Amino acid sequence: MGRIKNYHIVLFAFLLALSILLHYLEGFIPTIVPVPGFRLGLANIPIVFALYYFGYLAYLILMLLKLLFVGLLFSGFGPSFYLSLGGTILSIIITLMTYKFLKTSIYATSIAASIFHALGQLIVYHIFFQTPTIYFYLTILAPISALTGLFIAIFDKILITRLPGSFKENEKKRRF
Q1: Which of 47, 82, 151, 166 is the most buried (most CB within 10 A)?
Q2: At what angle do helices 56-70 and 44-53 cross, to 10 degrees?
Q3: Residue 13 falls within a domain, yes or no?
Q4: What is the pTM of this model?
Q5: What are the b/e assignments for 26-65, b being 16+ CB within 10 Å?
Q6: CATH number, domain with residue 103
Q7: pLDDT tens-digit profile of 63-102?
Q8: In a domain, 157, yes or no
Q9: What's the domain range around 139?
Q10: Spatial contact of 128 and 79, defined as CB atoms under 8 Å apart
Q11: Is residue 103 helix, strand or coil?
């Protein structure tokens, strides 16, 4: 039993480190879409995976730790940290609602989380700069966010299907 717990702790730490590394490496990828502030969200691949591997409590902890470490290492808790905080909070709320209560697919959960992350950032921007017209930007960000959320879900679904049967049994119990 202790060996299984150690395995989960190591895997959890690995997913956190991978998420932070992907966030960093994503900064080197040339912008595919010329939309200011847009990121692919590659750092969310290990996080969505953790949601379906460990469950919602581990997901919540991982999201908050990633936010804290990225802020500490890269943004210095500046304005981009607060934008990320707003997006993370709204993303967590919608993810927990879709995963735990609505029991939606990994695709719907990831897409909704991505869109609501963008909305959360716009809300924070509106609060800081008092520009209510910023919400029109959601007409551009929502479809792009939906595509990146779909990409993350597809990638994670491939990873999950390659896991041992014991994981699939646990996921089947959660869904029904």
Answers
A1: 47
A2: 160
A3: yes
A4: 0.88
A5: eeeeeeeeeeeebbbbbbbbbbbbbbbbbebebbeebbeb
A6: 1.10.1760.20
A7: 999 999 999 998 888 888 999 999 999 999 999 999 999 9
A8: yes
A9: 2-168
A10: yes
A11: coil
Give the Cα-Cα-Cα angle 172, 114, 79 (nearest 5 degrees). Answer: 135
Residue type, 93: I
Segment 144-157, tens digit of pLDDT: 999 999 999 999 99
Within 10 Å of residue 122's Cβ, how many Cβ atoms? 23
> Is the distance from CB of 124 to CB of 51 less than 8 angstroms?
no
Mean pLDDT of the chain: 89
- At residue 29, the 3 state secondary structure works out as coil
**Chain length of the chain:** 176
End-to-end C-alpha distance for the chain, whole angstroms: 27
Among 68, 72, 73, smallest CA distance to 85 is for 68
* Residue 176 located in a structural domain: no
Amino acid code (one letter) for 118: A
Instruction: Examine residue 174 and state whether it is found in any structural domain, yes or no.
Output: no
Domain count for the chain, please give it.
1
Cα-based torsion angle of the residue sequence 5, 6, 10, 13 in order, rounded to the nearest 10 degrees: 60
Helix extents (H) in 27-137: 44-53, 56-70, 79-96, 106-129
